[in-house]
């Protein structure tokens, strides 16, 4: 650990794929101080709201502390030896009885590279099945297909610096301002320095990323292929093709151009005017240095792979690739999405960018791992895997660092899959998630600040995450848990790692197999000599790492016009626009889009612990255009029901012109562990891209209606409560406790009676006040000594909502004055 610096320890942020360097310093009080690492090339000291609040999230509230059998029904605490023996026995038994394809791992881009490597080695190398897939399937899979088809390998050619060096940056299906905020800050700063830098945002929504945009193309959802086919045709028609490049370094151009030319009705399909299209096409064609940065608006589509290739085609055709300030740029979402692709933890790849269909690769890995059981066929992709579970074909599954009950489409099917599978193990840091609720065995994993290893960011830069805090309870690193199980399955000599540095060293060596002259893009040959101390002190390294980097480097790939295809040429891919699977109808006339909000991360297991982050968006919401809201009689902030034949979700209406009429946008964060019925995946059918297996999360036909209820409440409490019998609740973290937002079909006095049962005993004062008119407004407060324990305010919906949310009560010592204020009802707006 680098402790030279007054106790500040260098590590990497827990969240997005920007991979910002963080310095953390534990205080005697148990708190953790956080600041940006000025020497880190991702962020040079900057952090976003989530990064700054990392210290808030190390609290042990809700942590999973002990391996537990049947956690939801007669929980039984186990020691590690019994827990890992049980997993080994159940997996071995299933393999003996039903074959190695009857078991599976479902893993995550939030594992460290070392964890990921070991999981992949056990499943593909020794169990002999490729049934290991990652939540990156929901995130990067279409980009991986696009890269491999075009470049022959999963290569991201550009660096962050290219955003600063570009003449033009096109953001396609990326809300960079919220999802990669520090990268967005870099782009904003570059534009301040060079106002000529042309920024274009291509997104059906007018997002915060448009704040710095010169042009926003609010295209119809799902129409990107048509848009970029139009660009390819424009490049041809206006003599902006780079014929020399096309001829020397590519193949398949004519077919791609033909497909693009056949693209009719571009304006109609995209919903953009000819003038908008021309402006964009002209700018792309005439600017020399263009970066096209794309994310989930591209990947999460039933034609996501074609979207990716339609973008890459335009870069190849104009030769805008392989030099500074230029190139297609798929940004990664999770902190180690890139690392997962490197270790091969997708069901259809082998380790270290080696491939199933290459017998030489197969032999190299088998020899290196000393195994004769390496999987020979790709395994099941995430959606297929859960289908197989629902059909009873998977007898044991191990889910690590992901929450599929919330994040996979078709929530009902996922529930059925989890119920059907005879043995479900979940490794997580948090005790109560929708997925742990379905587990037969839960095992506690170390989380950010406790675990140690490496992550790779969007620009291929590998950084250390370091241990800065002790882990609570019995939590262990994922690589250790997997290795213990592997040993008990009979593979001890292959998994006897003493620490994560040994795993990394093995992985670095593996990257060199058959790769001594740069046959593959990914190599860590320069790190194979790293000793324990070197690993411990490792500074950020951008792959390919040919020799240990002692200074910051910015390496681009594909610079020589040489690609990783058999003949070294890049492939154009003929792409065709196809409408998304789900279409609107009279019954379901609106389109639901889903994605992220600024201050929350995924299913909120971490950001949901920070009061600061909770303040920005306090409840699940749905963005709706004013015209649509007026049509459906929906008023601002009202509770609404979004529904279709898949299911229903509840959220508060945010009426805004960010979305087009007829479109809705819901954030993905709230779920049944943090709210009642508020997850978009309950509405989303499992349509996927045929090639990548990535689900179409951004295009679902739904209807909407006001959800009018009788009464509402706010409930402030120091510890979490369980709310049964109300139609809607959402939990917000506040300082010293939680604030529940509640709505109910009961009359106010009945709701008050129901919620009063949640007032814990142990108080020495109970204050209550009733506004008198049939209990239509009531307030209850319990106090112990100088502390307010819980406070409840219930009111009839016919009354305006109270102004104060009661959360201040947990901060200040209780006094007569406060008592007086509390009892002075009504406090209505
Ligand atoms: N605050 C925050 N940041 C995060 C995360 C988080 O949970 N919270 N998660 C991280 C992860 S894992 C990921 S993958 C990234 C995702 O980062 P982004 O992809 O930037 O985020 P999303 O909000 O999922 O989707 C981006 C945009 O795609 C648009 N879109 C929808 N349909 C289409 C379409 O057909 N065409 C086009 N062009 N655009 C469309 C949506 O309107 C949305 O604004 O964020 C990472 N960063
Ligand atoms: N509708 C819709 N659905 C989507 C998306 C969308 O845009 N729309 N986006 C998709 C995308 S891009 C993504 S990436 C997924 C994300 O979806 P998930 O991966 O399901 O979301 P997380 O909440 O990040 O789940 C991570 C879990 O791992 C735990 N965890 C954290 N660190 C560790 C660790 O070190 N070890 C272990 N064992 N556990 C750990 C956390 O407590 C948490 O429970 O959602 C996908 N689903
Ligand atoms: S931009 Fe991403 S990596 Fe950087 S601080 Fe924010 S969440 Fe963390
Ligand atoms: Mo993601």
From TrEMBL:
Keywords: 4Fe-4S, Iron, Iron-sulfur, Metal-binding, Molybdenum, Nitrate assimilation, Oxidoreductase. Its cofactor is Mo-bis(molybdopterin guanine dinucleotide); [4Fe-4S] cluster. The keyword Manganese does not apply. Residues 6-62 form the 4Fe-4S Mo/W bis-MGD-type domain. Pfam families: Molybdop_Fe4S4, Molybdopterin, Molydop_binding. It comes from the Bacteria. GO terms for biological process: cellular respiration; nitrate assimilation. GO terms for cellular component: membrane; oxidoreductase complex. One of its GO terms (molecular function) is 4 iron, 4 sulfur cluster binding. CDD domains: MopB_CT_Nitrate-R-NapA-like (cd02791), MopB_Nitrate-R-NapA-like (cd02754). The keyword Iron applies. Belongs to the prokaryotic molybdopterin-containing oxidoreductase family. NasA/NapA/NarB subfamily. This is Nitrate reductase. It comes from Vibrio ostreae.
């Amino acid at each position: 650990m680098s402790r030279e610096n007054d106790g500040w320890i260098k590590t990497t942020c827990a969240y997005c794929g920007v991979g910002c360097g963080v310095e953390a310093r534990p205080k005697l009080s148990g708190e953790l101080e956080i600041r940006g690492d000025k020497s880190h090339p991702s962020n040079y000291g900057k952090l976003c709201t989530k990064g700054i609040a990392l210290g808030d999230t190390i609290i042990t509230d809700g942590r999973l502390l002990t391996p537990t059998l049947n956690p939801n029904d007669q929980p039984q605490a186990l020691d590690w030896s019994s827990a890992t023996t049980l997993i080994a026995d159940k997996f071995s038994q299933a393999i003996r009885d039903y074959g190695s394809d009857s078991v599976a791992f479902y893993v995550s881009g939030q594992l460290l590279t070392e964890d990921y490597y070991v999981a992949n080695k056990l499943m593909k190398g020794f169990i002999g099945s490729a049934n290991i897939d990652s939540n990156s399937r929901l995130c990067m899979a279409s980009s991986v297909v696009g890269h491999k088809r075009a470049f022959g390998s999963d290569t991201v050619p550009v660096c962050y610096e290219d955003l600063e060096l570009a003449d033009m940056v096109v953001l396609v299906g990326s809300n960079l301002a919220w999802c990669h905020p520090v990268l967005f800050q870099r782009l904003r700063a570059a534009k301040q320095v060079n106002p000529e830098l042309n920024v274009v945002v291509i997104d059906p929504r007018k997002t915060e990323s448009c704040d710095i945009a010169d042009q926003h193309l609010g295209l119809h959802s799902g129409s990107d292929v048509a848009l970029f086919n139009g660009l390819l045709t424009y490049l041809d028609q206006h003599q902006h093709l780079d014929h020399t490049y096309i001829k020397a370094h590519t193949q398949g151009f004519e077919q791609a151009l033909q497909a693009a030319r056949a693209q009719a009705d571009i304006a109609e399909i995209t919903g953009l005017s000819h003038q908008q299209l021309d402006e964009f096409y002209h700018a792309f064609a005439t600017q020399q240095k263009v970066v096209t940065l794309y994310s989930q608006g591209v990947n999460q589509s039933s034609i996501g792979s074609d979207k990716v290739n339609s973008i890459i085609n335009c870069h190849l055709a104009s030769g805008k690739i392989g030099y500074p300030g230029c190139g297609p740029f798929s940004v990664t979402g999770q902190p180690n999405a890139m690392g997962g692709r490197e270790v091969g933890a997708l069901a259809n790849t082998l380790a270290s960018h080696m491939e199933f269909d290459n017998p030489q690769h197969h032999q190299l890995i088998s020899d290196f791992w000393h195994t004769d059981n390496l999987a020979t066929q790709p395994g099941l992709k995430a959606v297929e895997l859960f289908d197989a579970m629902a059909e009873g074909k998977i007898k044991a599954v191990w889910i690590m660092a992901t929450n599929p009950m919330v994040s996979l489409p078709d929530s009902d099917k996922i529930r059925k899959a989890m119920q059907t599978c005879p043995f479900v193990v979940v490794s997580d840091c948090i005790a109560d998630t929708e997925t742990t609720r379905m587990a037969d065995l839960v095992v506690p994993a170390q989380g950010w600040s406790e675990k140690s290893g490496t992550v790779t960011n969007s620009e291929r830069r590998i950084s250390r995450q370091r241990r800065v805090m002790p882990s609570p309870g019995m939590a262990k690193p994922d690589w250790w848990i997997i290795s213990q199980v592997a040993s008990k399955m009979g593979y001890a000599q292959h998994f006897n790692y003493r620490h994560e540095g040994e795993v990394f060293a093995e992985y670095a060596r593996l990257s060199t197999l058959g790769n001594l002259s740069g046959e593959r893009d990914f190599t860590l040959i320069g790190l194979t000599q790293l000793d324990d101390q070197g690993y411990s002190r490792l500074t950020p390294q951008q792959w390919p790492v040919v020799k240990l980097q002692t200074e910051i480097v910015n390496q681009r790939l594909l610079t020589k016009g040489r690609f990783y295809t058999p003949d070294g040429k890049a492939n154009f891919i003929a792409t065709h626009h196809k409408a998304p699977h789900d279409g609107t109808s009279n019954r379901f006339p609106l389109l639901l889009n889903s994605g992220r909000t600024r201050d929350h991360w995924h299913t909120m297991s971490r950001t949901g612990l920070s009061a600061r982050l909770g303040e920005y968006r306090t409840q699940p919401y749905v963005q709706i255009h004013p015209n649509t809201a007026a049509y459906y009689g929906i008023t601002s902030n009202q509770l609404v029901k979004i529904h279709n034949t898949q299911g229903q979700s509840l959220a508060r209406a945010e009426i805004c012109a960010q979305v087009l009429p007829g479109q809705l946008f819901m954030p993905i964060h709230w779920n049944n562990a943090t709210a009642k019925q508020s997850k978009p995946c309950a509405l989303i059918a499992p349509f996927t891209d045929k090639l990548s297996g990535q689900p179409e999360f951004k295009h679902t036909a739904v209807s909407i209606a006001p959800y009018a209820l009788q009464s509402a409440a706010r409930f402030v409490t120091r510890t979490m409560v369980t709310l049964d019998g109300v139609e809607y609740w959402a939990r917000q973290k506040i300082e010293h406790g939680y604030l529940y937002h509640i709505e109910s079909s009961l009359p106010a006095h009945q709701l008050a009676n129901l919620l009063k049962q949640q007032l814990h005993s142990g108080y020495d004062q109970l204050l209550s006040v009733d506004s008198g008119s049939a209990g239509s407004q009531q307030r209850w407060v319990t106090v112990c000594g100088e502390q307010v324990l819980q406070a409840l305010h219930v009111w009839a919906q016919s009354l305006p909502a109270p102004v104060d949310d009661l959360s201040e009560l947990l901060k200040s010592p209780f006094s007569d004055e406060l008592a007086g204020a509390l009892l002075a009802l009504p406090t209505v707006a």
